[in-house]
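Example A, followed by Example B.
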Amino acid sequence: MAVILWVMGLSLLLQGCLSSVGETNRGCKSWRPKGDNVCCDACHPGNRLVKQCGPSPKDLCTPCEPGTFTVNPKNYRCTRCTQCVGAQVFLKACTATSDTKCGCKDGLTCGDGSCSFCVKKCDKGHEPTEDGSCRPCPEGTFNDQSHQTCRPWSTKCPNQDQQIVAKGDAFTDIKCNASVSSIIAPTKEEWPWVSVFTIVGLITFFITITIAMIVGKKIKKTKSNEKTPVTKTPIIRTPTDDPRTLIAIECSFHEAQQEQGSSSESLDSKDSSEQLIA
């Protein structure tokens, strides 16, 4: 029984807390006493003022009706939500504290801060006019962004050691030559990157040289192994009128005759021996 009573008490306490939280978003948010009544200085967001003073703060303000909103905490009326029509496109729904958010179709842009109407979107080199059209940037001005007002050309370069090398046009500002200091001396933020790029470049250079030397040696060794021995062809000399050549030929001829004679004598002696035996 005690447990049931405890649960019922807790439930009533939670309901009271929730109802009190809900009431904080309704009625008057800030008030001051005035005799037996209180007077409201500001309603809760999304509420409109019903009457300035009364016996209860929650009766001084009431929430905006559906389809309306208010941003003023002391307004007596809520404003009807905007409807996106014509060239407008719907982006976000209306709430009790904010109006509908509309945009514009492609090629158009909002004509005011609340985007209550759309105008033609001006390209670079042009600027919007009061009647919603676009005009080219006048001489001496430029615009490098879409649908922005043209700005005057700069009268000098950003650095003292620079000079103007070309005037601007409707799309760009003046052109200056490169700064000597920026080329010679990198900034402190650039030094780490410069060091890294230098080290990487040196390593790459030495690796490339080493690979080239190794490849060159291998190619040279392969070519030397591919060389075939040259066969020398004997040179045959024909007889000439040179006395030394004639003497050599004559000697060769006599030696041949002597050998032939020796052979004949051997044959004769062989025949004689055969006859004696017979």
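Example B, a separate protein, is given below in the same form.
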Amino acid sequence: MNGQILKTEAIYSFLVLIHFFLYPILVIVAILEELQKWFTNDKCRSPHTLSGEVALITGSARGLGRDIAIALAKLGCHIAIVDVQEKLGEQTATSIAEKYNVKTKFYKIDVRDYQQLLDLQKSITTDLGVVTILVNNAGILTMSTIENPPVHEVHRMVDVNFTATFLITEIFLPKMKELNRGYIVNISSLSAMYPHYVFNLYAATKAALRNLTASLCIDLLESKSDVRALVVCPSFLTTNKRITELLKIVKMGRLLFDIDGEVVAEYIVRAMLRGDVEITVPRILIVAYRLLATLPMSILEKTIATFGKLGKTKNFESEATQILKADDVPMKL
């Protein structure tokens, strides 16, 4: 047994050594590739390739989901608005159908309910056609208290932000593979890359989405499928006033900035057409992340912790808790 362990350690030590020498080169290549994509759109497919496709966007009654739905409708996609907020969902569906002359319908669905998701697939296929664009946007950032949140709030956030995405993808992906076309877009967050103690649970669910998308990309690559998977990590969004309020109480707010949902939606559509697998919004922040990733974990943690302390005001926890107090309004970060 000891001999096997030593042999295994020796093999992996050799691989790590090779990785150590190659990693700086790979990082530079990755950064140059991101910069090239940032400044050019040469690799983009024609937007007309999306015309006539059926897009399902979860959490699309309002906010970023609504903006993504509008961006896709402008390109001729038929839209399935999926949300728990019935009144807003109906208004969004009606508005999109009237303005962009595409088939649009609202579906009141709790994405945590597996049976509802199965029924949703049948309903959309009958009403609009086979879904070939799935945008997993539904997400919540709610907690009654930052420290030791109630167990039901923990389960709710994990179920909405991660489990639902896993299940709905498992339901809709097989048909896309059968057709050999389609897009899976998972909305993560910059908090998945740059963690903060206030958003620890939320960031963990969004980091899980990044990993899930990476696994999906590998699966699609190995199966030589033309279905594409993309994970999007946006910064703070203006689509929810409570997030704007949160920025105001953070001292380092001047280093942060919020972005309009319409801008993020445009980034997403371009990334889909370009065939990207991961983007940040702003895009340049993925370069910063790749540079930070080269640091030893101990230094990386201290660096992030230092910036985190800059935003920790005297009453930050109590003020943040009031802003993030649990309710039924989904939030995006």
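On Example B: The longest strand covers residues 228-234.
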